[in-house]
Amino acid sequence: MWIFLLLFVGIPLVELYFLIQVGSVIGALPTIALSILTAIIGGALVRMQGLGVLMRVREAMDRGEAPALELMEGAVLLISGFLLLLPGFFTDIVGFLLLVPPLRHALIRRYVKVVPLGPGRGQDVEHHRVGHRPDIIEGEYRRED
Q: φ and ψ at 134, to 5 degrees?
């Protein structure tokens, strides 16, 4: 409940504060123009990086690997694009930070777990091949009614 209060009340209040502060220094029209400019630049950057992620997803699928990290990176880029489209400087800063690949990769890797391959061995999700799960035992069955 508190997280929703923070998201829907706290962030817009922070945005209003920064917009008023910047507007009092450089004026209303330049503040609006700056907000529109950040949305345009951010949208172009998200599009370019999104196409790169899409290419990496295709390459991983062609190699027979699960593109888990690439899909997570695409989701973070989607969030980044949404934040850049919102008017305000605080969300623009967070959106632009999510566009920096090393920061984005560090954020994703922080939440990715290691897939176990056996006793004492582990493999990152990005190297996990589709269909080669150690916890699946293949076999045949027949249903008799």
A: -70, -15
Long-range contacts of 109-112 (CB under 8 A, 24+ apart): 112/68, 112/69, 112/72
Cα–Cα distances in Å, from 128 out to 36, 66, 75?
42, 7, 20
Residue spans of the chain under pLDDT 70? 113-135
Share of the chain above pLDDT 70, in %: 84
3-state secondary structure of 82: helix
**Which amino acid, residue 68?**
A
145/125 Cα distance (integer angstroms):
41
CB 111 within 8 A of CB 75: no
Token pair, residue 141, equals 């069955």
What is residue 62's three-state secondary structure? helix
Q: How far is residue 110's CA from residue 91's CA, in Å, rounded to a whole number?
A: 22
pLDDT, one tens digit per residue, over 13-48 is: 999 999 999 999 999 999 999 999 999 999 999 999
At residue 99, the pLDDT reads 94
